[in-house]
Each structure stands twice: as structure tokens, then as C-alpha cells.
Amino acid sequence: MVENLQSDYQACLSLLLNVIESAWNSSDRKSAFSQFLEGVRARLCADECLVYLLSKANRSIERIHETGRYSDLDHFDHQENYALIEQALDAGTPLLDNDHAREIKLPFGDVSFTVRSLLCYPLQHRGEKVGALELLNKRNGGFGDEDILFLASLASPLSVALEAIRIFDSTERLTITDELTTLYNYRYLVQYLSTEVRRCLRYKKKVSLLFLDVDGFKKINDTYGHLVGSRALAEIGQVLRSMVRETDVVGRYGGDEFVIVLPETPLNGALVIAERIRKKIEDYEFAAQEQGVRLTVSLGVANLPKHTLTAEGLIKKADAAMYRAKGLSKNTIRVAV
């Protein structure tokens, strides 16, 4: 029994070291984490294994990885489950419940699964709460002391791995994010668009790009000051992000110029989105430090493959269309030619 425990521990530790070594690359890290969690799940004879990260900024809990054996876990990540994780974190001790018996309904059809038992192990690094490891549904009976002992042997290196991931994520966000608006920055936009264009050309897909400029922004700075102008730009960023899909990429191109990349979007669809954005900003009252600023924007729209076959061409075409919109009447939309 002891030899088996030691062998399983060494195998899971090896997988965990792979997670740490892959921490700098998000895609490699996801694969490595999946392998590690699968190893833990198999060793403890559970149906599912999940790991949660505690945000230092707002103390919120986020599920970052799982083995994926349940098709839809979002309905399990509800207030009740997070309350159990918080309870384990606050107590600093494992939470074991072999009489949970809660049915989870999936959104479509009559499919559901029941959480019969769960084991939540809190994770700490240098005395600070980092997150938690959770296992669902022990296959033969319930979770016990041996399971807790096995997780205890992995808790310290797993906590180190999660802290390393937090640092890498934070550093990555700094390198790809515009500080003022928290949107993607110019560097990331260019890199992402180049990748997306290659994908679209390879699979014969479409991608559209919106180039947006704030009308008369210099007047805002001259009238209210640069602090109000900066706040208005930040608010514009929030409005833009709220109006697009999760798959769309919104970034600050520079100054008062913004770019929105719309994957899998034909020209007519991009025009519909552009008009929604134009109207939303026209009707929006920007707080901008309680000055009640009103703004409008001019937009240029370009599409691949209709107008160009390169990432650089998409930006140039949409940019030129935007300048035509500003030159004609402002607060309007023009399509690339």
C-alpha cells in the first residue's frame, strides 16, 4: 500500500513539474494541467478533478482547469459550490462531504448528473490562500483519510505551480494590454490579426475589421483637460467591449483610435455591428469625472478576402475608410474600397 502510494505520488509529481515548466505558455500549460488532474483523478478513483484559483484583487474564485469528464460544469460552479470552497479556504483544512447528493441539471434535454460526494482541499503558498483542488464522486464508496493524505503530499508543489501561473498571467497581461483602457494594445492587435488572417486564408474563412476614431477628441482635452479625456477613452473601451462577442478582439490602436477584429464575420455583418457601436456611443453620456461628456465616432470597415488578403492591408483599408468618414461628415461609417 505504501509503495503504491509512493509510486502514484511520484507519477503525479512528475506531471506537476511539467505544469511548472509549461507555465510560461498558456496552451502548453493547459495540456500539462489536464494530464496532472487526470492523474490525480485516476489515483483517487473520482469522476472529476478540478482546480480553482483565488484572485488576489477581488478575492473571487475561478475554475481554471478540469479533466473535462462532465460536459457542462458551469451549472456546478454556482454559489453553493463556491461557498464550500470558501469554507475550506477559510478553515485551512480539507472539506469532505460523502452525502452531498445534489443533482446538476444540464441546460438542454433531460441530461443531468448527481454529485454524490466531494473532497475540497485548500491550497496555500507561504501562508497565503492560493486556491483549491476539488474532486467529485468517489467511485467506490466515499473519500477518506488516505485520499486526504495523498492530496496533502501534492498540496505544496501544486500551490507553487498555481502561484507561478498567477505571476505569468499577470506579466502576460501587462505585455499585451493597454494600461489606460485595459483593452489589447497595438502589439497584440497586430500579432493576433496576422494569425487570424493566416487562418482565414488557409480555411477560406472571412474576417472583418473596424477602425474607429473619436471625433474632435482634441477639443475634449482642450475643454475639460487631459484627465477627463483619458477617462472618456477608458469608458469608450468599456462600451466597445460590452458590444462585441467573446470571440471578437477589441484593442486600442493608439491615441483615440481603436480597432475591432471580427472573426468569421462577413462585410454586411460587420456593418451592422459598426452601426450599433456608432449609435451607442452617440447616445452615451460619458461620466468622465462627472463632466457629462458627449462623443461621436467615425468608423471604417474592411473585410478579408473582399478588400485585401493581408493583415496590413486590412488595417490600411479600414483606416483609409475611417478618414473618408471623418472627412465627409463624422459620426458615420464608410466601407473600404
Outline of this structure?
48% of the residues lie in helices and 24% in strands. By secondary structure, the protein is an alpha+beta fold.
Give a written overview of the molecule.
The chain has helices at 2-21, 26-43, 79-91, 145-176, 186-203, 217-224, 226-242, 267-283, 311-328, and strands at residues 46-54, 61-66, 95-97, 102-105, 112-115, 118-125, 128-138, 207-214, 249-254, 257-263, 285-286, 293-294, 297-304, 333-335. By secondary structure, it is an alpha+beta fold. The chain folds into 2 domains: 2-173, GAF domain (Beta-Lactamase), CATH 3.30.450.40; 186-335, Alpha-Beta Plaits, CATH 3.30.70. Helix 1 packs antiparallel against helix 2.
Outline the secondary-structure elements.
Layout lengths: L1 H20 L4 H18 L2 E9 L6 E6 L12 H13 L3 E3 L4 E4 L6 E4 L2 E8 L2 E11 L6 H32 L9 H18 L3 E8 L2 H8 L1 H17 L6 E6 L2 E7 L3 H17 L1 E2 L6 E2 L2 E8 L6 H18 L4 E3 L2
Parallel strand pairs: 13-14
Antiparallel strand pairs: 1-2, 1-7, 3-6, 4-5, 6-7, 8-10, 8-13, 9-10, 11-12
Helix pairs in contact: 1-2, 1-4, 6-7
CATH structural architecture of the largest domain? 2-Layer Sandwich
Distance between the termini: 73 Å
Largest sheet, spatial ordering of strands: 2-1-7-6-3
Largest sheet: 5 strands, antiparallel
**Radius of gyration computed on alpha carbons:** 25 Å
User: What overall form do the CA principal axes indicate?
Assistant: elongated
Strand content: 15-25%
Instruction: Give the CATH topology of the largest domain.
Output: Beta-Lactamase
Order of helices and strands: HHEEHEEEEEHHEHHEEHEEEHE
Structural class: alpha+beta
The total domain count is: 2
Kindly state the percentage of residues in helix. 40-55%
Mean pLDDT: 85
Number of strands: 14
- Stretches where pLDDT is under 50 for at least 5 consecutive residues are none
Classified in CATH, the superfamily of the largest domain is GAF domain
Total helix count? Answer: 9
CATH level 1 class label of the largest domain: Alpha Beta
